[in-house]
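Researcher: Next entry in the queue.
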Amino acid sequence: MTSNDLQPRRSTAIKRVIYVITLTAKMWLNFSFALLLIALMEVSLTSYYKVSDEAKSEHAVKAAAYSGVYEDPVLAEEYLKERVDAVDWPLPLAPYTQSLEPDYTGKFLNVHDGIRRTWNGGPSNDDESTQINIFFFGGSTLWGWGSRDDFTIPSLVAKNLVKSGISAKVTNYAVNGDATTQSLIRFIFELKKRNVPDLVIFYGGLIDAESTCSEDRPGLPLDGPDFERMSRENEARVSIKPENIAIMRFLAGRKRHGGCQKNLDTLSDGAADVYFENIRFIETISGSLLFKTLFYLEPQLNDKEKITIYEQKAIERHDGWLPGASSLYSLMRNKVVARDHDRADQNVLHDLRSIFSGVSSPIYMDSEHYGEDGNNRIAHKISADILALYASGK
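Model: Structure for this entry, 394 residues:
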């Protein structure tokens, strides 16, 4: 092959190389442009959703404060804004129990070592050994989602007992989002530290039903499978869920849960089994450690006979978020109560579904949580049960 034959081939090869380089450069330029565009969209949507979410939060706070639930809506709005600042969902992770309350110091809301502050009057005769040591365990309703520190259910029970001449030290171990099994584990941790109460009160049930409906199986924490994982080295949270990406949130639209209407009977059986076995376990260890027990199945908004317009809208929002959850809780509660009635030893399980019967004024500040008037009504019932428990010498 002569040099004259090689020259055209070299020229062709060079042209092809130049073409490939040019094409690659164009593709890289297009890719970079697309990447830049996506980044700009992500930043813009993130900013938009941040402003939008804050606006929705402010609207919800104002709506709750001026719903008629609170005597002083201005004061209520101030507290509810503080609660938004104090409680950042999801909560920090914790072993075994999944979550813990972040510490916070505020005007109306204070949490130290994961425990919300509770009003306590102190011993009447400066002798702490004469005080009844009472533990409360539960979820957000007991924690006091819609209430100031001194007006949560445990705080109001402590005040009522003092008025009745009973000196008690009350501790609120409730954590937002806790199902009964999580509360049980928290209680076991206290017992392991030899922190044994005279009386332990478990309040809840609604989260058990909601977690069962949400996860389509009983016994799991609410949002347990989707909870953020922590690094083994520094326990830092890693957010890799698609909904944390603004573009994915935009494309997917508003997230809706399918609910559990099609499997209510089976799921409510399972939820009742989990709840009732937790009761039996706690009662078993109470016999050896010599503490008393009380259990309360909380009311839900659907139980209220005279529902306000604001409360009706709250029901509709809840049913849209998790269809079937309210019905599942009603069935679960019926089955738990029926089993308790079949036992020889009763009077430790109390069903509060009728606690707001005949009340026409607003009680609920959202679909699940009461204002301070609702807490007060429930606290009077629990206080009366405590007085009866100790008066009877059981």
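Model: Residues 226-239 have pLDDT under 50 and may be disordered.
Researcher: Noted, moving on.
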